[in-house]
Structure prediction request, 146 residues.
Amino acid sequence: MSINQVLRTAAGNPDPERLRHELQESGEPEIILRRAVNGVSVAGIAAMTAVTLFQSGIVTHLPDPPEQDFDSEKVNSSEEAYSYGSPDGPLGIANHAVNIVLATSGSANRAWEAPWLPVMATFAATPAALTSMQYLFYAMPVKEKA
Prediction:
């Protein structure tokens, strides 16, 4: 069995033309939400790309957002940002990429045709959401004071 066949089977065997049409043209609420996941994930990749370039030493300065008392460099150079065995920037990019794959896999009826896909998408997004909340509400303002 080829990788193409494995992936199509896992996605519920959607017809490629039907999948293309649904993803690009459908107004179904499920597809609209999946497009939103893609948009947010692409924006997340863009943000984490800048962080990754900084964390790996390719760029030496990150601009701060207009928010007062926010120190991008301090937060992205913190011990916690490097505590996963890798800087957190590349890990964030990988997580967003997985979200994009899962959001674009399967037809509009995937909850019935491939019910594991929405479950897997939830499992993939939940740790990132919890980690982001922890950074935003604890690590940055309380621990790093930045």
